[in-house]
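User: For my dataset I need records formatted as: sequence, then structure tokens, nothing else. Please produce one.
Assistant:
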Amino acid sequence: MRMLLGLLMAASLANAAKTLDMYFVDVEGGQATLIVTPNKESILVDAGWPGFNGRDADRIKVAAKAAGVKDIDYLILTHYHGDHAGGVTQLLQRLPVKTFVDHGPNGENSTNGKESFAAWEKAVTTGKRLTVKPGDKLPLKGVDVQIVSSNGEVLGTNAACPTNDYPADPTENSRSVGFLLTYGKFRTIDLGDLTSQKEMALVCPENRLGKVDLYLTSHHGTDTSNPQPVVHALAPRVAIMNNGAKKGGSAKVWNIVKSSPGLEDLWQLHFAIAGGKDANVADSFIANLSEVCEGQYIKVSAMNDGSFTVLNSRNKYSKSYAAKP
């Protein structure tokens, strides 16, 4: 009996010790986020820019190696812009992808959108393809990944607040695949480049997202996204700004995030040159301080009790956030 109880306790402790790991890869103002679930399933959100001798794909591979990932179970493409979709071809030369997740056909009549979509259409022939809509969930074990926006639609009634402050956006940004990930009591959200009108539709007239522990700023922290009512409705404990040195990291958004109720810390992938000293966090919270950098990442490891730790790979500085009662 004692042996059985010991085995059960050991199994319980082992399950409790499993973490959800997230690597926010620096792709110079694009996006690439590698997520490894407690059951070792992998999700990559976007693949960064094309060109640069495979720079972004190489940086993703470095994060994958650190995570012990040899292939990608799900590649979520938020939308067909070069800073998110452009690196897909080079990525496949380094890491195989099993399932490709998208919002459906390209909806933007631009060279950028057309070229990115053509590369994506070729890439998806190497695996399975899954086109998602709001309310869908990815078939993962141990975590809940719910799609909250896709192809211009959002979770719920899609009724935006009656205001002219947030104009309609005809670009691929407004079609971004966004998702809410839940692991036990830990919650995080990624809305891709979703712009303000669609973001507002998720929280107004009612907040259909709830509060989150970790918020990845939308659209690299640009001020056509991240409106104050949305950020403050999410009330994140920690936010990560996936900006580049000269892209995103808007001082306006920086201040919106910093003033969000309950925020404990903001971390940045890059020092935002335009923000200067007044709109950048302390150096220890920034993964890359100079414009010419080595592409350091930020890693988040979350427990199912809601506690989590953030690590800056540049200086190995880490900070832990306790579970909320």
